[in-house]
């Protein structure tokens, strides 16, 4: 790959030694060129607009504007850039917000030089890279079982009104009169309520309503 087609990389990290190390390592990689370095988010955005890099290696914890806000603003200005987070942190409050801000990949600073270079090349080809612990966290988050709905949460608004009246001791005719509906409609609602709650009769339905705080006091 010649210099004209080299992947342009911008480093944004407030630790000078980290930037020096990254620049030195990446300079040995064929087809990757570090075009600039920034020690803070604002300078990173300015350099990104100036150099139009393909990839930005972004630290998360920096003085002033952190990596999350920097990523968000940078991508608003230059949406074509691929932001690769390179950090020491695995906290949920950092992982999810920066991904929502548009970060393309997430690596730890313990990653080997080859892994970083590979992630840079992959990003340019549209392939995100997630550090294994980050990937596990994300997968576990979406694998968490959703809480099951309680039976009464399946009731319609009208059925809930009928249930409350049943719990207050109203007869079918009382319910019909109060809700201005026909007696057949009330019976239809009662049948549905019993089925959805999994109870056998109006008394059990009333008990259910009181047990779950659904009855009017």
What features would you describe in this structure?
The protein is of the alpha/beta class and 217 residues long. It folds into 2 domains: 3-143, Response regulator (Rossmann fold, 3-Layer(aba) Sandwich); 151-211, Arc Repressor Mutant, subunit A, CATH 1.10.10. The protein contains 10 helices and 5 strands. The protein has helices spanning 16-26, 41-51, 67-77, 92-100, 113-124, 132-143, 157-167, 172-179, 183-197, 202-211, and strands at residues 7-12, 32-38, 55-58, 82-87, 105-108. A 5-stranded parallel beta sheet has the order 2-1-3-4-5, with helices on both faces. Helix 3 (67-77) runs parallel beside helix 4. The longest helix has 15 residues, at 183-197. The protein is rod-shaped. This is Transcriptional regulatory protein LiaR. The modification 4-aspartylphosphate is found at residue 59. One of its GO terms (molecular function) is DNA binding. Keywords: DNA-binding, Phosphoprotein, Transcription, Transcription regulation. It holds the Pfam family Response_reg.
């Amino acid at each position: 790959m010649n210099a004209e087609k080299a992947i342009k990389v911008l480093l944004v990290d407030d630790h000078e030694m980290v930037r020096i190390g990254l620049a030195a390592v990446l300079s040995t990689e064929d087809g990757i060129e570090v075009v600039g370095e920034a020690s803070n988010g604002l300078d990173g955005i300015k350099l990104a607009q100036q150099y139009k890099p393909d990839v930005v290696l972004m630290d998360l914890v920096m003085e002033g504007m952190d990596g999350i806000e920097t990523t968000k603003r940078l991508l608003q200005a230059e949406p074509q850039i691929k932001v690769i987070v390179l950090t020491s942190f695995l906290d949920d409050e950092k992982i999810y917000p920066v991904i929502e801000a548009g970060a393309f990949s997430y690596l730890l600073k313990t990653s080997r030089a080859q892994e970083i270079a590979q992630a840079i090349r992959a990003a340019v080809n549209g392939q995100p890279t997630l550090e294994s612990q980050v990937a596990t966290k994300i997968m576990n988050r979406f694998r968490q079982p959703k809480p099951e709905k309680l039976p009464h949460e399946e009731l319609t608004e009208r059925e809930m009104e009928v249930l409350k009246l049943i719990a207050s001791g109203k007869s079918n005719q009382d319910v019909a009169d109060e809700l201005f509906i026909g007696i057949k409609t009330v019976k239809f609602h009662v049948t549905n309520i019993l089925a959805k709650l999994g109870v056998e009769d109006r008394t059990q339905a009333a008990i259910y309503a009181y047990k779950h705080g659904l009855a009017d006091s």
